[in-house]
Amino acid sequence: MKIIFVCSSNVSRSVIAEAIAKDKVQKDPALAGVEIDSAGISIWGGGDPRDPGSRAVCERHGLETFPDGRAKRLSGPEADAADHIYVVNPLHAYALKNIVPECGDKIESLIPDEEVISAVGESDAMYDQCYSQIEAAIDARIEEWKKEL
């Protein structure tokens, strides 16, 4: 199973989700073989440096962070290869369904009908709130993934 988390430009929320999900998958033998990745939908998402606040919140939680250090844009082949594409904002689902219409059935909000808080440039407390929101959503999704495996 391949899972991709998507945000606007792959510098904050999607990479936090990737780090959390990778950590949980590595620690749970029932999720062996699940691949986790992240990407952005926007044109400016290619090559931008990752948000330092996102790196810091993950490090505060003991997670390995973004070894490549650069944002990437979701490609058609990546979308095709994914089993699930989770967006952090319901509006991203709409945009992605226009970019990769053949993958529409794979695209859904990480949190149904709710946007994950964007903490870019905000306080550590906002990053912690964003992290907690993403972690809770991933915990709920993990139970769904296990049923599919």
Task: State the gist of this model.
The chain has 149 residues and is of the alpha/beta class.
Write out key terms for the chains shown.
5 helices, 44% helix, four-stranded parallel β-sheet, 4 strands, globular, 149 residues, alpha/beta
Description:
The chain is an alpha/beta fold and 149 residues long. It contains five helices and four strands. The chain has helices spanning 13-27, 52-60, 76-81, 90-99, 124-148, and strands spanning 2-7, 35-40, 84-87, 107-109. A four-stranded parallel β-sheet has the order 2-1-3-4, sandwiched between helices. Helix 1 (13-27) links the parallel strand 1 (2-7) and strand 2. The longest helix has 25 residues, at 124-148. It is globular. The N and C termini lie close together (8 Å).
Lay out the secondary structure.
Blueprint: E1 2-7, H1 13-27, E2 35-40, H2 52-60, H3 76-81, E3 84-87, H4 90-99, E4 107-109, H5 124-148
Parallel strand pairs: 1-2, 1-3, 3-4
Helix pairs in contact: 1-2, 1-5, 2-5
Mean pLDDT equals: 92
3D shape: globular
Element-level helix/strand string: EHEHHEHEH
Quaternary organisation: single chain
Total count of strands: 4
Tell me the strand order in the biggest sheet: 2-1-3-4
